[in-house]
């Protein structure tokens, strides 16, 4: 995805410099300028949404999940109002609404212009459930100034807001429609899941809604429990054991041990069938990892080379097992090791994106940037996912790197075999050399210096050589033996 960063002219407050400072936007899924794909001739070319109720029902299918505490902007194109680019951000604090509204409108319009066309309209969604003791109608009234500010910001860019909807606790309101028949003041109930035209079309197209955003983030967040203390101690022990190795001369062996451990765990997860998405499935996956295994792999993946080698497992029959393992590792990054979750979260986002699960990829990469906003691998993947780039380019790079590494290992093994064969032909013993050069320093054998014999003639000193006795050529006084030296000679 692309990590949306605000311009230097305006620095967002602290509340927006965490995960909410990054707006997830996607221009690839339904942009009118995306390349055409082969379609089923019997499939419907488009789905017509004729009311605010159908607009509200379409949101989860357009995003792939039900957004919580989010503001979503959808771009519309043409007279038939086709959906285009989309943008999502967590609802900020009320003091930030004016600045955030301007930034969101500018971000979406600029992204659409990069695709070659200014949007002809925008649909705004404000999604937030009531707090304790609050009603959904109160949520709608509380967010009304934010909706109005977004309408002003979009209008200032000559892009009108076609409709602004508030979704809260299974009901929706329209800030733009005054028809009491479709938008009563008390709000209208949302349609039952799977009963609308949009739901039928999404099911036909294979689009799956993966629960709520809060549930998806919970699957990637550390869980509190009795095992948190034990996992923290295991992470402390793994840090003390592995960090000196990665920083010292044994880093290549430590990397290989990390990759080998990850591969063994892949096989273990692959041998255990995955259940339905949810807490029960995650709990079963957590039981497949011991505290020491999880800690060793989390610390090992902090090495960039080890992480890149682990990223090569992004396709094939074990893909889902790999994704489950990365999720389980992210849940093991308990405080104060939450920043270490950036590596497994980024790998989870990469595998999800490579598998076509863009919604899950954006959530995982967003969580990675929340754990470490400067994690470069997550930022690059987040940008690429949001820009609609093809992951096949990165897959080709990883395949090539893996093939080159295998070729280097094969050449090294061949050289060892040829050296052994040559030594056997000569009849001299041959000691096998390591296939990879080791960076560890070996102590050189100490050679004993021979003392010159008394009969050995000393070389004559040239006449013009400087005096070597005492200062200024004075004879050096003879050193008197110490008591210990005299005693040793006795």
Question: What does this 3D model show about the protein?
Answer:
The chain has 490 residues and is α+β, with helices and mostly antiparallel strands. The chain folds into 2 domains: 14-216, no CATH class; 219-389, Serine Threonine Protein Phosphatase 5, Tetratricopeptide repeat. It is 46% helix and 8% strand. The chain contains 16 helices and 7 strands. A 7-stranded mixed β-sheet has the order 1-3-2-4-5-6-7, with helices on both faces. A hairpin with a 4-residue loop joins β2 (70-77) and β3. α6 runs parallel beside α9 and α12 packs antiparallel against α13 (358-371). Mean pLDDT is 80; it is low at 1-22, 27-45, 435-454, 468-477 and 481-490.
In short:
46% of the residues lie in helices and 8% in strands. With 490 residues, the protein is an alpha+beta fold.
Largest sheet: 7 strands, mixed
* Low-pLDDT regions: 1-22, 27-45, 435-454, 468-477, 481-490
| Order of adjacent strands in the largest pleated sheet | 1-3-2-4-5-6-7
Shape category: elongated
What share of residues is helical?
40-55%
The total count of strands amounts to 7
Quaternary structure state of the chains depicted? single chain
The radius of gyration computed from the alpha-carbon positions, rounded to a whole number of angstroms, is 33 Å
Number of helices: 16
- Write down the overall mean pLDDT: 80
Derived structural class = alpha+beta
SSE sequence, one letter per element: EHEEHEHEEEHHHHHHHHHHHHH
Strand content: 5-15%
The overall number of domains is 2
Taking the alpha carbons of the first and last residues, their distance comes to 85 Å
């Amino acid at each position: 995805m692309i990590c949306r960063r605000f311009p230097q002219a305006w620095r967002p407050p602290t509340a927006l410099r965490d995960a909410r400072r990054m707006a997830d936007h996607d221009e690839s899924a339904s942009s009118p300028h995306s390349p055409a794909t082969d379609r089923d001739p019997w499939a419907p070319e488009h789905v017509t949404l004729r009311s605010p109720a159908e607009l509200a029902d379409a949101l989860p299918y357009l995003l792939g999940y039900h957004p919580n505490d989010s503001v979503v902007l959808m771009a519309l194109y043409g007279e038939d109002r086709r959906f285009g680019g989309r943008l999502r951000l967590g609802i900020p604090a009320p003091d930030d609404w004016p600045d955030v509204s301007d930034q969101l409108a500018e971000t979406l319009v600029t992204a659409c212009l990069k695709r070659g066309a200014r949007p002809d309209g925008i649909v705004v969604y404000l999604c937030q459930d009531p707090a304790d003791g609050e009603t959904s109608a109160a949520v709608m009234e509380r967010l009304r100034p934010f909706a109005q500010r977004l309408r002003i910001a979009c209008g200032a860019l000559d892009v009108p807001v076609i409709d602004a909807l508030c979704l809260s606790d299974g009901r929706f309101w329209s800030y733009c429609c005054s028809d009491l028949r479709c938008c009563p003041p008390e709000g209208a109930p949302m349609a039952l899941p799977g009963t609308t035209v949009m739901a039928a079309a999404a099911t036909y197209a294979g689009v799956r809604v993966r629960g709520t955003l809060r549930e998806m983030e919970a699957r990637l967040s550390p869980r509190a429990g009795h095992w948190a203390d034990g996992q923290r101690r295991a992470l402390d022990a793994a840090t003390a054991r592995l960090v000196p190795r990665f920083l010292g001369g044994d880093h290549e062996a430590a990397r290989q041990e990390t990759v080998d451990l990850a591969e063994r765990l892949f096989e273990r997860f692959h041998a255990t069938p995955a259940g339905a998405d949810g807490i029960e499935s995650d709990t079963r996956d957590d039981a497949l990892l011991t505290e020491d295994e999880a800690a060793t792999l989390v610390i090992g993946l902090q090495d960039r080379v080890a992480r890149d080698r682990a990223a090569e497992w992004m396709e094939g029959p074990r893909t889902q097992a790999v994704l489950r393992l990365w999720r389980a590792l992210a849940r093991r990054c308990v405080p104060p090791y939450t920043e270490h979750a950036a590596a497994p979260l980024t790998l989870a986002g990469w595998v999800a994106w490579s598998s076509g699960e863009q919604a899950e990829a954006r959530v995982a990469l967003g969580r990675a940037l929340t754990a470490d906003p400067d994690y470069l691998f997550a930022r690059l993947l987040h940008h690429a996912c949001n820009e609609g780039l093809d992951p096949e380019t990165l897959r080709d790079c990883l395949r090539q790197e893996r093939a080159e590494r295998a070729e280097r290992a094969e050449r090294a093994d061949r050289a060892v075999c040829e050296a052994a064969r040559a030594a056997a032909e000569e009849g001299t013993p041959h000691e096998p050399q390591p296939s990879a050069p080791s960076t560890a320093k070996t102590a050189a054998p100490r050679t004993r210096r021979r003392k010159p014999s008394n009969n050995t003639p000393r070389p004559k000193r040239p006449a013009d050589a400087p005096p070597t006795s005492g200062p200024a050529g004075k004879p050096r006084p003879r050193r008197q033996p110490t008591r210990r030296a005299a005693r040793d000679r006795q």
